[in-house]
Amino acid sequence: MARLTNRDIAEVFENIADLLEIKGESVFRVVAYRDGAQTIRDLPRDLSAIQAEGKLTELPNIGETLAEKIEELLTTGELNFYKRITAEIPLSLVEMLRVNGVGPKKAKRFWQELNIVTLAELEVAAREGKLRGMSGMGAKSEQKIIDGIEALKRRTDRVSIGVALPLAQNILHDLLKLPQAQRGDIAGSLRRYKPTIGDVDILIVADDAAPIMQAFVTRSDVARVLGHGPTKSSVELLQGLQVDVRVLPAARYGTALSYFTGSKDHNVRLREIALKQGLSLNESAFSNVETGEEVVLCATEEEVYTTLGLPYVPPELREDRGEIEAAQAGNLPHLITLGDIRSDLHMHTTWSDGSLSIREMAEAARQRGLKHIVITDHSRSLGIANGLSIERLMEQQQAIRQVDAEMGSDFTVLHGTEMEIKSDGTLDYPDEVLAQLDVVIASLHTSLRQPREEITQRLINAIRNPHVDIIGHPRGQLIPEREPADLDMDAVFAAAREHGTVLEINANPHRLDLDDSHARRAQELGIKLAINTDAHEAANLELTHYGVATARRGWIQPENVINTWDTGQLLDWLRSRGQ
Ligand code: DGT
Ligand code: CA
Ligand code: CA
Ligand code: ZN
Q1: How confident is the model at residue 384 (pLDDT cuts 50, 70, 90)?
Q2: Higher pLDDT, 101 or 444
Q3: Which residue, by CA, sits nearest to atom 8 of ligand 1?
Q4: d(CA 443, CA 446)
Q5: For ligand 1, atom 29, which residue shows the shortest CA distance?
Q6: 338-576 architecture in CATH?
Q7: Structural domain boundaries of the chain?
Q8: pTM for this structure?
Q9: CATH class label, 159-248
Q10: Other residues' Cβ atoms within 10 Å of the Cβ of residue 431
């Protein structure tokens, strides 16, 4: 029996959730499987190890029912319940749900009314104009389905950086404990902080590579060894991620780190510059183009750039999006760093769907070195997240003022909200309530698939409200499973600029929203940004670095991020907004 990876088990639960939804089961059952799957996907450890400790039910979102199913899957490789439900509803319907514009109700109708059960059959039927015969389906909705299928084909099987980075750090940490290892780094897309990762690339400096290769391929979290060579090995982890480890001599480490950090496009540009100097650059050295003789070995990346006559280019910029030209002109941006961040302006407590009290959240934030935070629980219409009625919101204000006083003068707790922008574009609290809050974040959580004009207008309505300070995770994407809303971002930016509304870079690695290029555009337009974790528990406060890296990928400078402000500066700004 093949060992099931965490990713395999998460997939079974996701499929069950989808099948139950197609069947029309209660949302709570569906959500239970979906949340369970998410927990497993994000898990930094192997499920079978947790099962062996008897601690499955201690995981968030894993109750008795799911724990039993995990056990059955781990011990037998199968699940009876899954067999029963896939006998009743074709499993292949699930892949249809990944198409934008196809929900569970439509999938069920394609199956029952037209006997279409696979994505391929759906595509053929749509292209042949066979869907428009169904009630409520026209040529336009048929075309949308074709567009959706094409978009889906462009997406690939990549892993969220939030899953890949902890796994990679863990492996690097273990390998660096070996006596032969002199130093090491994570390279590739992970070092550049791309939001999704194809595979993990790790480099280690050592003279004797064999013990490092051996330790790597025999790790307990390895599902399969894909290659085991003298200086390079590849494995697939139980979590379903491929990892490549390469061992190099110290003298050539700089060229290797530069090469394997990429991006490929950035490397191509570096090689062009080298060629102009009569040098050819590869992963191990600079050589003379004519003679092929190695002429410069680089132990550090800095030496690679120096040889090319360039200043050091931070990994987050290496995408060939203008960084080479900027480096040549001496114009590289002064990038924001994690050390510049003094506050977190978006977080949840037990008042809505968070797991810590206001006081606990404040303590955790202070421990991380922050100077001020804003508590922004969900608003009343978001029932599923226990959103606050106006009465409870006002009660919460008292509680927050109390904690703020208790925390002393070097730490400030402000009262805010993460308010729903409702489907019809109205806001969830009236202006006179918003006027009493220190900070108002407005976010879209529902009806994210509205047509472009409608959803853009909805967001702009919120931006225009003088009480709204920040738009939370503006585009509504989830990585890797949900595409952003179909927003006219030019119009959103124009409105944000006009009204001085801040746009968030949500640091949660499942969101990273705004993304790098939209953040960059916002900065160019003079729009201020916020980098917030949207924490629901203490550990989430550690996610800030993902947001900072996204900002760095977007060329963001510290002065354009309001979390770099000290408390007085933030309060002045809030006052200047007339609240
Ligand atoms: P990924 O794994 O798809 O998330 O993206 P990367 O950037 O980690 O790509 P990967 O793992 O295929 O290769 C790691 C780095 O190695 C890549 O960023 C640049 C370098 N590299 C790989 N193949 C080539 C190539 O054919 N030409 C050049 N110039 N560089 C390459
Ligand atoms: Ca890679
Ligand atoms: Ca690779
Ligand atoms: Zn939130």
Answers
A1: confident
A2: 444
A3: 188
A4: 9
A5: 264
A6: Alpha-Beta Barrel (3.20)
A7: 6-154, 159-248, 252-328, 338-576
A8: 0.78
A9: alpha beta
A10: 10
